[in-house]
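Hey, resending since the last one bounced:
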Amino acid sequence: MFIVNVEAAIHREGKWFVIERSKKEEHAGGLLSLVGGTVDNEGDAQTILEKTLIREVYEEVGVRVKENMKLVSNTSFSIADGREVLNIVFLCELDQGEPFVKSPDEVEGVHWLSTDEIHHHPNAPVWLKESIRYAEELLDNSKHNTK
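The structure tokens again:
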């Protein structure tokens, strides 16, 4: 059985929104990450991934993202205790608000960083770099398809 986790790749003016995970976090504490969280069991539900992501982004950094999201990637990995995680990244657009540390137990800092800054940041894990690369490809393809 997987833990299902969703993350938001948010891009604005050439920069990506990333958080610094709280050092209290069991998995990847202190590292840079996309904002998001785990999907709760809500019984029969439509668009549960998107609703979870909207909720998690608001709970952690106090902003709303638009409902129209595009799938970036889905990967799986094991955490230290052996549980398996299914991680799903969506390309999201800010709807309202400016991100701030709303949940200090989960988020230690908020940053707008360029792709290059993320790729050279000492606290950027390989999975964040990969997610940003895939999100950037999707963003570039979307721009070319609208011209």
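The beta strands are 2-12, 15-21, 32-33, 35-38, 64-65, 70-78, 84-92, 94-96, 107-113.

Sorry for the duplicate.
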